[in-house]
Amino acid sequence: MDCLASHRLTDVTLEQDKVVAVKQNEIPMYFGKKPIDSGMVRMVSGLSLVMLFFLVSLLLQSSSVFIRFPQRFQAIPTIEVHSAEDLLRQLKANNLWEVESFSEVPAVLVSKFPGDMPSLDAATQKKAFLHVVLPAAMIALSEVEEERASFEKIMAKFSQSPRRLDFGVSAKNYGRIAGLSQNEIFFLQNLCRKYRAYDVADLRSRISPVPVSLIMAQGALESSWGGSRFSLERNNLFGVLTWNKAGGVSDGREDGKDYSGVAYASLLDSVRAYVLMINRVPAYKELREIREETMDSLALAKGLHQYSNRGTDYVADLSQLIKSNDLQIYDQCVLGSKGGVLGGIRLASLEDLR
Length: 354
Prior knowledge:
Elements: H1 2-25, E1 29-31, E2 34-36, H2 38-60, E3 78-79, H3 84-93, E4 104-105, E5 109-110, H4 122-155, H5 171-178, H6 182-195, H7 200-206, H8 212-223, H9 229-234, E6 241-243, E7 252-254, E8 257-261, H10 267-280, H11 285-291, H12 297-300, H13 312-324, E9 334-335
Helix pairs in contact: 4-8, 4-10, 8-13
């Protein structure tokens, strides 16, 4: 027995000597000037790789943690035009010149109007303007419709819809009561911020499209059919202004305050901003109330008397423009595709949340 115990002790001692020898031959590791344990580094690295693998697997699988909203489009074809003649040629080449009621409109965008847009004769300029704005308006409206559909899908999970969405203490109960994922809760919170409404009925009334003909009419009236300085230099189709801070360069002065026309990255962004403005600004509450009863653009135009200081005269001009140019035929068009188009939901951006 003593011999066996002695042999085991010798084996243990040899193993310990091997470990010491290995450690002595290792190159020391440092963090800055301080030595660190290489074993600890290997352990942390291993754990990090395991966590990364788990996160990637979670993102790739169809998990209820991440809500996957439908995306109708993959990439938006965008046309760069260099002259009014080039614009006409591109519209014809992309099946955007002859458009009738119930036409399928290709989802093709023009990045901006050419500088010589006003050189076209009046009839041609009007038609070019309308058929550039048409797909941009339809894409912007499809985003609102998908946003609304996703909102309704989430709200349907509640056995009894709350009257008001609360993202304080109550938000913690949404997952337990309605089975909402954290991502769905964030989506609702972003919608409330974007549309500036937490009352569910009010929020629902704001996440709605407006007629294409109304977008076209106001764009035409405010931008002089795409020929105004704001539309040509800043993609600002709707005369949207921002009040300047002291010392800023201004485009004009109203009520003792300096203002500038807002600049947009694209014509599509200008349309998006217009639709959002109509849907959330208190001045257009009347329009939103009318919209609960009808989507007729002539009826909705009555809710825009605060858009201009001309009041009811502005509404009269807008209504006349819709009728004289037969713009309501465009309300019957459907959005098609061209080589795969970008769409999907555009969640609240930093610009939207301001």
